Each structure stands twice: as structure tokens, then as C-alpha cells.
Amino acid sequence: MTSIDRFHHLGHSPVDPVPGSPAPDQAVRNVQVRRAVARLAAVRRVSLRVRSTRGQEGAEPRVDHYLFEHEGRRELRAVMLTPPGPGPWPAVLVCAGRNATLERVTGLLPPDHPGRDVAAHLTGAGFLTLTLDHGLDRWAEPATLGGRDPGDVLDGTLRLRGGSLLGALAEDAGAALDWLRAHPDVAPGRVGLFGHSMGAAVALHAALLREEPLPLCAASHLGTYETMIGRSLAWNQYVALPSILRHADLPDLYAALAPAPLQIQYGTADGRLDPGDAKTAGERIVSGHDTAEILPLPMGHSTGLAEAADFFTRSLAEPAAATPDVPAARVGFDVRARLDILDLVDDALASGALTLGPRGTRLEALASREIGRGTAAVSSGSSALEIALRIVGVEGRTVLVPANTFFATAASAVRAGARVDFVDMEPDGLGMDPEGLRAALAAHEDVAAVVPVHIAGVVSGSLAEVLAECDRRGVAVVEDAAHALGSSLHGRQAGTFGRLAAFSLYPTKIITSGEGGLLSADGADLRRAAHLRDHGKRSFEENLHDDLGSNWRMSELHAAVGLTHLARLAEVLAERTALAEWYDESLAGVPALTRPAVPAGCASNHYKYLALLPEGVDRAALKQRLRAEGVRLAGEVYDVPLHRQPYFARRFAERSFPHAEAFTSRHICLPLFPGMTRAQQERVVRALRDALS
Ligand SMILES: *Cc1c(COP(=O)(O)O)cnc(C)c1O
């Protein structure tokens, strides 16, 4: 019995909670449903390019024929109808049914079916419409299909690679929505979606894949999947995503659009719907989305044109509720990466190798190639630091760390048995001040290690002086490269400067494994690190321990995440660089903000995008003001220097590190994360300009 059968057998639909557990909050459920749809649809964010456009002279409303292409995959035809008179207009993206043609939907030819000319009708009611033709009947010669539905053949082909026709069509519709929203004739924030029959499935999925709420009117597509596809045989399999019933049925998908305005029409004489099934599906939708309108209409497999126009007139009267806030940060796994991770995790679970296995080894090999030095995967950046300092042998001696760094830099030294002292930042950069370092080395005879930190992903130009000074005194350098995976100075990668180096794969870092870290070193140091991370165990077979380490291993499940993410490092760096360069140009328009100079020869990974506030600006008040504008700043690096952290404050009460104090109180970090859009960046810069002028 499959799990779905078992659920039915018990009288539960596949998405009912396990008996006895509390019903999850509907909003949480909706988010889960949307995530499942995103996973199964496996849609990329693509953009449309206009290949050609042709206006129809003298037509009223105005008619424009578009031929789009997106990333060379397929061409997409569309017709835009613009009401007469001056815009901008509220707009509707029209996703037509399987057998509809552009000409009939847009009224260029007389309708061949009641309600077919929905785009013409909506434009007559005052909406700009863009109608898509997915071109299912044009992608293959009929002779090659042997009478099969081209949609079935295409869907079958796409499924071989984990995709689906519905996913591909929703991708088209999503790209068309982006294009439409940016069109100068379209009123900002006033865009809705209409779909009929198969087009309703496309419109529904396109809406589920978006963050902003979009009004949806769906006609003649209502029921439960098993009845529609399995029993009535009136629907092709490609109106549903593969495996969808493991997560949700059609009514749950509609309900998951809440609170966006939703109208669902169905014909009481529609031969393709089961009337009882449609009715109960409608009730189930309303129980999860209480403003949804379910309209049974006296029609066949058709559209109630007046009802649709009325719905959009009401739901597009105002711009959609405020766009979501620009978040401070975001973890960057697109749906392809998530699917790759699931495969690796499944492989690990099936094999039973759950720690110190082949995925960890692959992660190390990939990291070694990126960094240009051997690496050992460990449980965290903090454990990488502690292992490195134990290998150097700092117990009972002094370790020098920057006054401005994360607590873990110093705490790892303390845990390794050292006493820490701090060194100020350089006056005009983010690195360690060589003057301050010389003074600290003079003040302590017993310095075992110095730990420079590449704050914000910037490898300081003063690092050479720090290294030379340590070399002269015979003091080991352990790099804290937690921020700096992928950064370099004069072509040399961060993590290759010190005797050992530590990287963090914590979720806020450039590349993450959930929790995890990497230690980079050479030869005997690297072998010792691998030994220490596994309790100093002599070998896999023997229970003999000849060194005191700890459980600093990385699990195979974490390695699966880290490996998949690290394989995308080049893309991640390219995207961050493009975002940073756009900020560089745009902040020229915000003269109150200055940027710390990036040292010559440093290629930063742009882990943080820093700016310095003018003297006297209250950072907390500024952040609050930006938050009211829907903009969240990223966390500082750092807002409290270590000598002011409660754990150290008493010992360092008499000390001051003026450069670190000035920097920690004056800088801000602009949001910069994978998937950030130009519109979000513009919003950040606008909010900053307003707040600082
Ligand atoms: C994140 C971080 C660490 C610690 O890494 P974890 O993986 O969280 O243990 C150490 N130093 C710096 C500078 C960091 O940013």
C-alpha cells in the first residue's frame, strides 16, 4: 500500500495532519504548500526578451503582437491589448485554455466557444491584457506525433529530467508577469492573473510561485486531482505537478493563495468537471481562504466574462498591499540546489554513511581546489579555529586577536587554553593595525599565535606587514577566514596566508552547510586536524586514541548541503559582485555615506557591503527609520568590539581601541543576498537617501 493509499484508507487526505497532532496553523500550511509547489515545479527565474513586436495599425483597442524569447529555450507568442486613451492601466495576464488560439481569445477572430474572447472582454472593461500562447501545437510537426497530444509528449520528455510541462508553462507565465509589471503602460502594483481550464492551472501555479500577492480569476478548473485526472479522464496529466498529492491537492493550492483576492468560476453544465467534486473542492478552498469567491455559473466549460471583469475591477482598484520588506539577508538555495541536496541526503541515508563519508571527502576536495590548499571539513568555524590553535600549541600562552571580530575568534583561543589580548584595527582599513600588533608583541613575551580576520571579506593590504612581523618573531599566524571564502589579495586566496586557516559554513556566511567549517593547512598540520576532529582516534577500525581532540566531525548530511552550495561558488561570487557594483554606482547619489576604501589588489567576495555614516548620525534611529520604509539592514561586523563584550569587559575596562570603537559604532551593512532584485536595491538606496538628507 502506498502512503497515499494508506491515508485514504484511514479516511484522511494526504495533507491531513497525523491523527492526534494539532492542526497546523493555516498560514504555516500555506507557506509549506507553496514551498512544495516550488520544489516540484523546479522553475527557474527567467526573463523575457522581446525578439520582435508588431503593432496593428488603427486598431481600437490597440493591438500589439509580441514574439518573446527566454534564454533561447523556446519562443513565446503573445498579444497585448491596450484600452484607448492615456494609461497607465491595471493589467491582467491571460493564460488561455489548451485549445484556444491567440486570435480567438483576443477577439481578432470571432470566438469559437462561449467566453473564449476573454482578453477582448477584459480590455473592453478597462484592463490592459497580455495573452500568452504557449505554442504547444507548434513545437513539433503533427506528422511526428502519431496522433498523440503534443502536450503529453512534451510533458513526458520534461519529466525525464525532473521537470514538467506545467512547471515550464508556469515559468513562462512568471516571466511574462515580470515583463508586464515593468511595462510603462501598466499601473504599478495593479496586475492580476486570469486562466481558463489548463490556463487556470498555469495561472494558479504562476501565482503560487511568486512572493507578492496577485489577484487570480480561475475558470473551469476545479475539483480534486484524483477525480479530474484519474476518474473523469477529461484532463491531461500535465494540469498537475508530478507527485503533488504527496503534499497538497488542488483545493489546497488555491487556498494557499490567501490572502490574495481569488475568484473561481465553474459551470454547472461543464462536462469536464464532476459537479459534486467541484462543489466540495470549493467548500474546502473557502475553509482555508475565507475571502475566496467560488461561483457556480450556468455554463459549460467556459468563462463568465462579466463576473471576471467585475472581479478584476474590484481587486485591481488599488495597488496590491505593500510589497514585502527587503530582508536583511537570505540563505541562497534555489530550487535546483535544494533538489540536488535532497538527492545527496537520500543517498547518504540509504547508504548508512552518515558522518566522515564520501560527501565530506568530496566537499574537502572541492574546497581545496577553490582555496588552493588542503582542507579538513569540521563541525563549525569555531572548531576549525580551536583545532588550528591547538595544533599551534597555545595553551598557557597569549593569542592576539583583533578588537573587532566575532566573539568566536577570541573564545576559540580561550577554549584552546590561551589568554587573549586584543589589537586595534588599522586606522584606514578593516585589518589589524601593524603598529598595534608591534606594541602587543612587545607587551607580551609569550605570544603563541596571531589571528588576523578578513572582516567583511576584505583581505587587508596591511596583512603583508602583519605576516612579516609574526615571521620575524617566530609567531604562528592562524587566519580567521570565516568571512572570506573566495576572497583574494593579489591573486592569492584567503586561507593560504597563515600557517593554518579557518572558514565557517554557518548559514549567514557566503557558503553554508547549515553548521560546519573548514580548516585549511598543509602536510602534517592537516593530518593532525583530521585526527583531532575525531577524538584523536588512531584509525577507523581501532578504538585507540593517542591525542586529545573532540567530536568536531562534519556529518554527511551537512556535507551534502555544503558540497552543493560550494559547487556554486563562482555563481555566488559573480552575483554578489554585480550587486556590489550596482551599489557602488548608486551610492554616489548619497554623498552622506562614505565607503571604506577596498585595498588595491583585493578581490572581495562582498560578504558584507559596508558604508560609514556621517559623524553624529544615530545608527539605531536610522535603522528604525529604514525599517518603517520596509528596508532592513544586514547585521554589522561588528556593533560591539570584543573588549566591550560582557565576557571580556571587566578585564579590559581600562583599555581602549579607538579605531575599532569608531568603526563598530559608525558603519552599516546594506542588504546584499542571492536573488536580490534591482528593485530591492533601488528601494534600499532610495530609503537611505531620504533618511540621510
Ligand atoms: C562565523 C564566524 C566564526 C565562527 O564560525 P561558526 O561556524 O559559527 O562556528 C568565527 N569567526 C568569525 C569572524 C565569524 O564570522
From TrEMBL:
Q: What is any Pfam family matched here? A: DegT_DnrJ_EryC1
Query: Which cofactors go with this protein?
Result: pyridoxal 5'-phosphate
This protein's superkingdom? Bacteria
Keywords of the record, alphabetical order, are: Pyridoxal phosphate
Ranges for the region named Disordered are 1-25
Report the family membership: Belongs to the DegT/DnrJ/EryC1 family.
- Please give the name of this protein: DegT/DnrJ/EryC1/StrS aminotransferase
The species this protein was found in:
Streptosporangium oxazolinicum
